[in-house]
Amino acid sequence: MGVWTDALTRFFFHYDTPRIVLIHSSKVGLLNRAVQLLIFFYVIGWVFLWQKGYQAKDSVISSISTKVKGVALTDTPKLGLRIWDAADFVVPGQHEHSLFVMTNMITTLNQKQSHCAKFPEVDTLCTSDENCTRGAIHVHSHGVETGRCVYFKGAVKTCEVFAWCPVEDDSALPRPAFLKAAENFTLLIKNDIWYPKFNFTKKNILPDTNATYLRSCIYNIETDPFCPIFRLGEILRSAGQNFGKVAEEGGIMNILINWDCNLDLSTSYCLPKYSFLHLDHQTSDLHVSPGYNFRFAKYFEDTSGREVRTLIKAYGIRFDIIVFGKAGKFDIVPTMVNIGSGLALLGVTTALCDIVVLYLMKKKLYYREKKYKYIQDSNQGLTLRNQQRS
Question: Does domain 17-54+331-380 correspond to CATH entry 1.10.287.940?
């Protein structure tokens, strides 16, 4: 109880007041000025100049629209001579913040719903009907098994299925990419931004841009960094990738648009900065499900009115467009808050120097005696005395 009583007595009946002690010491004096200098450079250099602590900040709100242009010519035994334009290779259409450009494909022509043999794989081979289960549906199957074991193109036997026939054979991916010419296609990005706190809006198509310029310009970070039209091959090259290699199995690219703006300056200095990143880059020799692909079909009717489709396994590059940035403008409130924080940090100097003087220096006992002074109330019959606080 004595410990708690003493603690309560000190809490209620003792009062601490600062005491200034001037210490003549070159070491402590240099330490004091050095710490004050560091705090000064931190507040002025980092907080105010670099981080612009005198500004109010706002995050960007944006909208995006895109348009791809380009034409490719292919001539294959399966499809014959064919022209490919934006309606063919931009699948399944254009979205606000991303788009997919097909660069390679596996096609299965004239599929009809009927009975046919499964594609030969380890788990589809059979020797008799007993190896096949009627009505079975497997996750990777093309259809429903009929229970029969039949020949696949007269070579090996597999279980028969009711499915879209002939079944897809995706084992032979075209190399080089079927639509490698997409390297020279162009992508137009139209980006509108808004900073609601400052009611500031701007477009990435700059005010001095005209139709003639847009028809001829191509983005280049060195010669034309503000052109909103990008060559697809240049996008991948800027990300350190080879377009022909990525085009074979597909991939995912990020187009980053940075709108960091200092609105204390002229609005003409608020300009977009573009950068590019390949997200699904394979870092090891073990390629498990590499690239980017999906399937879609085109349906029609034959001369007899029967439904027929062309199945396309599309490989390509998905471009995700990400807009980010912050705008800043002078405001008295953050300015005063950061000034107050800087002044408060100067208290660190005193605390650090006190630790050195009272606990680390050889004359620490002497300095403690000079710094602390105990006074007891004379009205209680006690005497005035100085003593060292331990």
Answer: yes
